[in-house]
Write a structure and sequence with these properties.
Elements lengths: L1 H12 L5 H6 L2 H9 L4 H11 L6 E4 L7 E4 L10 E4 L2 E4 H4 L1 H12 L5 E4 L9
Antiparallel strand pairs: 1-5, 2-5, 3-4
Helix pairs in contact: 1-4
Length: 126
Amino acid sequence: MQFIANIVKSMNIKNYITVDDLYKFSEKEVLSLIQNCEDNYIKNAFKNFQNATRTSVYKSDELNNKIYCTSVKSKKRYINPLVNLDNKASRIKDVSTLSNNDISNFLNMKHHKFIGFNFDFKSYVT
């Protein structure tokens, strides 16, 4: 999301899109403006983003200033639903070893501090 925000911010700084446009236009129309932008730097960066694959995504605990890289503060969201077992409502992780292990593994999973793409893009500044 940060990359798209940086693209839109750059387009706004260069007067290719206004804040009012973001309220008027549909998502599809905004994407079309980005894809057909006169500014090749913006257009090509977005094309690189669209063509990104697993191998072109950068994930690390170290910032890399040579590529598009941003810090990520991820939230872990999960559901531990109530289930009916022997006419008693219980949390699934309390009655299922598999569910308990899955939830624990998810909560213990390490997330990277930085994520980015193996191409450079710096937002325009005002």
